[in-house]
Model the fold of this input.
Amino acid sequence: MKRVWLLLFSLLLISFTSHATHIVLDKHFKHLQDIPFHYSLQPLTPEQAKLGAKQQWQQPTEQALNLGLTSQAVWLRLQLVNTEDADLAVLLSIDNPLLDKVAVYHYFKQNTLLVKEIGDALPLKNRQIATESLLVKLTLPPSSNSTLLLRVESLDGVRVPLSLWQHDEYLKDKSKFNLLYGLLVGFILSLAITSLVMFSFSRKRYFALCGTILITLWLLLIYLYGFGYRYFHPSLPMLQQLAVPSMLILATCLFKPLFEQLRRPVKTLLQPLHTWSNRLLFISLFFIWLLPTNIMLSYCLFVPLIIMLLHITALGIDIRQQQTQPLNALLCGALIFFATQLYLIIVVFDIYDFNTRGLPFVFFSFLICSLSLSFATIKHFLIERDAQVAAQQSKIAQSEAHDALLQERLALQEQARSDLEANIEERTFELQVTLRELEEKNRALEQINMEDPLTKIKNRRYFDKKLVMDLRRSRREQTPLSIIMLDIDHFKSINDTYGHLIGDQTIRAVADIIKNRLKRPLDEVARYGGEEFVVLLPNTVLSGAIELAEQIRQEILDATIAIANTEIKFTISAGVYSAIAEDINNPGLFTDCADKALYHAKQSGRNRVVSFPILD
Done:
């Protein structure tokens, strides 16, 4: 009933309060995109923004705020209504990882719930969640109407698309995005690596240039989506401000030498202007960091666009004189890159609202551009190779009429090559068979290394590894891990009375009894040393471990073991320790505690089970 009244109150508040934007949330909320808010360009303090009067705030004309290039800080104001009777955890996603600074203030009544400052001009450690996205974790108090204020500063464009997420829903969406992003970015990187590998084999410069352009486009995508800042230099945010402009200039400059490699040498009137303008643009790459950020950004957007237009014009002139598939593909790639540059200018300067959340146009444009450039270079290589092959075939055809001996030699060489391939295939098959046999022997050897040869149960080496694994699982799942240390009482007397062979048979019999008592797949018994055994019981409380140890002790006490026509009765003592692992770097803690309990069992009369800590 309380939630119903709060919801009605929130709806009335929304109806009568025009300057506040209310977002009503409950436990069924999953995702809100392009959430409504108000913004202000006035120079306000957090307190003034919190108390902000109606006339200070205005409603954005689009769902995602884009103010273009501005040196002013912009305030955003949201009202978050929690209709639940319990705390509600949500994620605020600012879907533009290139914002310089975003200060977040979360208020409820007179209480400050959160103050946080994030952005790509600040170190990654400032963020609540170490990710490339600008995320803020918010906790809405029960049945509350709280105020969220954002102060955004960004000299390279204020574009603030907002969305609210339930945690699990965000992880699902992020996983899908990362999968698609990884596939497409990985595909571009694979094209770049392929071009560089082709250069290493063929020594054709156009492959190196194409690979460099593709790596530049790949880095542009990495930085535009915030991954470069996260993985390459999280403690040097100033490099983030230079990366994207530098990559835009470099990618533009590299189109010119690639164009020169794919065309026939033809003089045009545009060539001197084209060459010198491209050189000057490349030289400016080393000085742009001296410019103020807003001027540098304008320069890196407009000047490369003009130079790219020169590239396209020169390509068009050349194609009219000598139309080839490589030049057509290169022109397609240049046009796509030009369209991307134009798109970025429109987005940054807010010329038109494209609904730019996620920049999908840039993503797929770079993909098409990469395919076009790769096709251009590979097709040019194939044309060159076909021309070389045709020339070689012409020479061979001329020589065939004059030199039959050469044909005979070629046939012999071909036969030798076939024989060599057959031998290689045969040797490869033999090698595969040998490797498979070696792998099987390695598996058998590994099994031997983990197994105690006397008892056929696991040995001390295996136990040490298994203990570390179970400790990690115990700490991760917060479940108890129990250890039972068992030792045969008066074993020296058995050895002295019946001999070592009977002693070995006794050890084997005890191992079999313990092994038969273990029912769960994860329970494990190992020979710890001599007549001492250890049992690992994951996800087992102390009482369960003590009960199992008592069952083993009682079964050995009741059993009469016949070995080599000799009936032997003996007992065992056991020490038990159980706890939830806290320090996985100290596995000896568990064995030491169990061993202390075993020692106490020995000291207090043997044939008993004692747990640690020991109660007097």
Notes: Residues 1-20 have pLDDT under 50 and may be disordered.
